[in-house]
Design brief:
Elements: H1 2-32, E1 40-43, E2 49-54, E3 58-65, E4 68-74, E5 76-81, E6 84-89, E7 92-96, E8 100-107, E9 115-121, H2 124-134, E10 149-153, H3 156-168, H4 175-192, H5 196-207, H6 212-221, H7 229-235, H8 240-251, H9 255-273, H10 278-284, H11 290-301, H12 305-317
């Protein structure tokens, strides 16, 4: 009887907690309506803070998740990293400290109930600074590398930080200074919370992690160059099999596929934003054969380059262009 009463009390507390959380989410949604009035990614006067809105479903679309922390206020998304799928629901947050090729799907969004999320961009050095200043210590017993992105559940304290940040937008005099403090507080909250060890291990993976962080950074800086996995492994004092295993554990794909996707995303940006033709874009990102570029582009984005860019431009003109993750 006592056990049943305890279970009932737990259920009541859980329902009350969910009610309060949903009420807070609704408050934040109301605050974002004056900022994100159209679909896509809307930047705010806070340099690192943006709002993303989608009023219709979006099929699986390849992109790159940059170092950031985001929270979904309403709706549902799925992130696909290689063979890994991460579900992202209202009240969840996602975090990554490395550039990760990802395919994103927006599910169930409509004009009546758009998918709305908030995003905070940060750097590894900002995270390291908080770890040092706050003297946060981690007892990491499991030395395994984890996927470089993860999803967790937000709490009232974290949601309150977003409310404070949104309130700053109308206070231009104090915005920059105070927003930086709130950002550090958010990072501290993530590090000191339930998922802090994952965040910390991502910092290790980016900075050290047996050469994986250095390998990722080298590819980002030299993605136009041709290289072999053997050369990359040797330069990081690793075996080929060790590099493959650890690289895939963090990014969900291998080094050469990582390079390929960086090339293709940059080529897409050049063709869309700078109106560069297909052949020039292919050569600009390191391809020697435009036909190979076209094949690989179609394999990733589902359409040949020219057709895909035309479709993106049409979506942009109709206000449907997907921007932001």
């Amino acid at each position: 009887m006592l056990e049943q009463k305890e279970n009932l009390n737990k259920e009541v507390l859980f329902e009350e907690s969910n009610f309060i959380k949903q009420k807070t989410l609704n408050t934040i949604i109301g605050m974002t309506e004056r900022i994100a009035k159209i679909d896509g990614n809307t930047k705010t006067i806070v340099p690192f803070f943006s709002v993303t809105r989608h009023s219709h479903e979006i099929p699986i679309t390849p992109g790159v998740m940059n170092p950031a922390f985001s929270i979904i206020l309403q709706g549902r998304k799925e992130f696909h990293f290689g063979d890994e799928t991460i579900h992202f629901n209202a009240g969840d947050f996602a975090a990554s400290i490395i550039d990760m090729p990802v395919s994103v799907q927006v599910i169930g969004a409509s004009k009546e109930l758009p998918c709305i999320s908030l995003r905070i961009d940060f750097t590894t050095s900002e995270i390291a600074s908080v770890i040092l200043d706050a003297k946060i210590e981690f007892n990491i017993k499991n030395k395994n590398l984890y996927l470089g992105a993860f999803v967790g559940k937000s709490d009232e304290e974290l949601l309150d930080l977003f409310i404070r940040l949104l309130k700053l937008i109308n206070k231009s005099k104090d915005t920059y200074f105070l927003s930086q403090l709130i950002k550090r507080e958010m990072i501290y909250h993530l590090l000191s919370g339930e998922y802090g060890y994952l965040f910390f291990q991502q910092v290790l993976a980016e900075q050290q992690a047996d050469g994986i962080g250095k390998a990722i950074e080298w590819i980002k800086e030299n993605y136009k160059r041709s290289f072999t996995v053997e050369e990359l492994a040797k330069s990081n004092n690793m075996s080929v099999s060790g590099l493959h295993h650890k690289f895939k554990a963090v990014t969900a794909i291998g080094p050469l596929q990582y390079q390929k996707e960086l090339r293709l995303h940059e080529a897409r940006r050049l063709m869309f934003s700078d109106s560069i033709d297909v052949t020039t874009a292919a050569m600009e990102v390191g391809y020697e054969s435009s036909s190979q570029f076209t094949r690989e582009y179609k394999r990733l984005f589902g359409q040949p380059p020219l057709k895909h860019i035309r479709a993106l431009r049409k979506s942009f003109e109709n206000g449907e262009f997907q921007s932001g993750i």
